[in-house]
Amino acid sequence: ESSELAPIRSYTEETPHGINAKMFGKAKGKNLILISLESTQSFVINNKVNGKEITPFLNDLIDKSYYFPNFYQQTGQGKTSDSEFLVENSLYGLPSGAVFFTNSQNEYNATPEILGKSGYESAVFHANNKSFWNRNIMYQTLGYDRYFSQEDFNITPEKSIGWGLKDEYLYKQSMKYLDNLKEPFYAKYITLTNHFPFSLEEEDEIVSEWDSNDGVFNRYFTTVSYEDNALKQYFNRLKEKGLYKDSLFVIYGDHNGISDNHTEAMEKYLGKPHTPYRHIQLQRVPLIIHNPGQKGKVMETVSGQIDLKPTILHLLGKHIENDIQFGTDLFAKERKDFTVLRDGSFITDKYIYTEGKCYRKPKGNEVDSKQCQEWKPIAEEELNKSDQVVYGDLLRFLQPYSSNDNVDG
Ligand code: GP9
Ligand code: MN
């Protein structure tokens, strides 16, 4: 292996990459269905607007799933595409620009490629223009077999809102394509209806708009609720087709939807002042891992999108011996409560560090920055090392890997 990769490997191997023997292979041989919930933040989960539950379907599902309330989005300027990059590769997006554009010709060792080697057929469903975020190129690089984009869906004005095809039709029209995928498959859905500026026709509203003087904020609840209901319909379709039980579901928010331009309405809604601490806590996005038939469990571990690749692969019973992963299996006993955001902010079990200041959880009171000091170089190195991999295209030096399907340690 190249000497350029050696310091990276010794760094990623410093952090314990544990495997939870009880969880390893829990979903072995199942289909993997990954759903990216556009702009969905955790503050809507188990919460209400105008006295009504915002996400009744997700709230129910959470009771039968692993739910991660301290899961953070780690994207930068590449927004949705950064979240995809993080999740597929366990590498960070770049400090500026979108890695989907700048480094689409690199070598990677992405989840679709890894699963492809054990017979999974992979497909993405996203009803936008195929070249948006350079996806048509990047998906080939990541090893996707199929990409169903705008041109593969029947998109009419009645079936569209805002950025394009409504989520309910994305799911509905994907069913015939799912039928033609060879099982086990890896299907990734990128939803769109809950995208800024959160437009929705009144007839599609499940909850009504909130009543602050911030229209964007008020409408957010309606599109989140619509997204929730569309997902419910999709699950029903999968059950009818007999695909539900044979699949592992990973559902997560891609990034925040409510920017700091809406802090006044947010303060009013949450009844809490907007502080740098609050800003970081609002970068939490839902993560739901659902393996049909399991018991529900809330997992408090501080985590981020970087951790999904090892988590998913281990659940499917794949351990990639010599992969370079910056994340850690969320079920591993020895994993540390620590997550770095793309701007260098970080979160531990006790502290949040952002904009050069250290805050104590859960109240968010500022404490001496010394309290956060020990983690600061770790956070910096984490991002630097990942950036070196991407800028230097270092995964071209990865040795062909062996997949160990029988880990029980
Ligand atoms: C566009 C969709 C939304 O295809 O992924 O993009 P975003 O603006 O959220 O990155
Ligand atoms: Mn997005």
Automatic annotation (TrEMBL):
<protein>
    <submittedName>
        <fullName>LTA synthase family protein</fullName>
    </submittedName>
</protein>
<keyword id="KW-0472">Membrane</keyword>
<keyword id="KW-1133">Transmembrane helix</keyword>
<keyword id="KW-1003">Cell membrane</keyword>
<feature type="domain" description="Sulfatase N-terminal">
    <location>
        <begin position="30"/>
        <end position="317"/>
    </location>
</feature>
<comment type="similarity">
    <text>Belongs to the LTA synthase family.</text>
</comment>
<keyword id="KW-0812">Transmembrane</keyword>
<keyword id="KW-0614">Plasmid</keyword>
